[in-house]
Structure formats: structure tokens, C-alpha cells
Amino acid sequence: MDATPSLTHLRPDGTAAMVDVSDKPVVRREAVAEGFIALLPATIRAITDGAVPKGDVLAVARVAGIQAAKRTADLIPLCHQLPLTKVAVDFEAVTEGIRITCLVRTDAKTGVEMEALTAVSVAALTIYDMCKAIDQMMIVREITLKEKTKGEAAG
């Protein structure tokens, strides 16, 4: 094993590999991701009024986002399985659609960016799935990492 670990997903021969984080300290890590789903005004009203035939869209999308964060390592092949200590998925209805924000926290050796991005993506796709019968103009867009933080190593 190399004395100086390289943070790469490639071995010297070019094949994929999971990054070895064995020697990294456990620290508090957070990530915030955001995304947007553009919707017709009538669809936004149906969601906020609880009038979508499939049920409470935002409640289902919130649970889907939380579940997705917890299952990220099952979906993204080279992600580490992390003990998540917090997943919060929030929604803001605006004129053009719904903004989705997710905060994920862990005490671990690697960050939770992928978990936050996955949660936002799946929450948006859940809204899409629940509203596809009433809105064929939906667009999922602007899924992005807004912030990531890393605390001090546990002493």
C-alpha cells in the first residue's frame, strides 16, 4: 500500500476502485444540495392544496428523499456506506415550481455530498411521478451542491 494515499477512483492500471479512507479521521460532515422542478401553476396549486389524486406529494417526496440518502451507496457504485445522523428534505413552492433542499449530516471519514444530491434527485423524481398524469410539462433541473462542511477530528 502507498504511504501517501491518492484520493482517486482509478487504480494505476486505470480500473475503477473505491477510495481508501482507512487512514482518514472521523469528523462531523454536512452537505446541502438543492434542486428544482418546474411545474405548471395548476400543478403547484394541486400540490399545495393536497388535491393531487395520488396523495400528499410533498410528504411522499420527503420520505423518498430520506430513503434515497440512506441508500446512496446501493445506487452509486463507488460511494462509501455512511452512518447518516441527519437527513432533512424541505420544499419551497414558488411561482415556477418547487425548490427542493436537502441537508445531510454524518460523523464519518468521508463526506455526504452524494447522499444530499441523491436525496434531492429522488425527491424531484417522486414529485414528477406523482404529478405526471396532471402535468406533462414538468422539468427537473438545477440539481447542485450548495455547501459542504467538515469539522475537526474527534480527539
Could you walk me through the main structural features you see in this protein, from its secondary elements to its overall organization?
The chain is of the alpha+beta class and 155 residues long. It has one domain: Alpha-Beta Plaits (2-Layer Sandwich), CATH 3.30.70.640. 29% of the residues lie in helices and 32% in strands. The chain contains four helices and four strands. It has helices spanning 41-48, 57-70, 72-75, 113-131, and strands at residues 27-38, 84-94, 97-108, 139-153. The chain has a four-stranded antiparallel β-sheet, with helices on one face. Helix 2 runs antiparallel to helix 4. The radius of gyration is 18 Å and the shape is elongated. The two termini are 26 Å apart.
CATH architecture: 2-Layer Sandwich
User: Can you give the mean pLDDT?
Assistant: 92
How many DSSP helices? 4
Reported for the largest beta sheet, the result is: 4 strands, antiparallel
Kindly report the name of the CATH homologous superfamily: Molybdopterin cofactor biosynthesis C (MoaC) domain
Level-1 CATH class name? Alpha Beta
Major beta sheet, strand line-up: 2-3-1-4
Distance between the termini: 26 Å
Output the radius of gyration: 18 Å
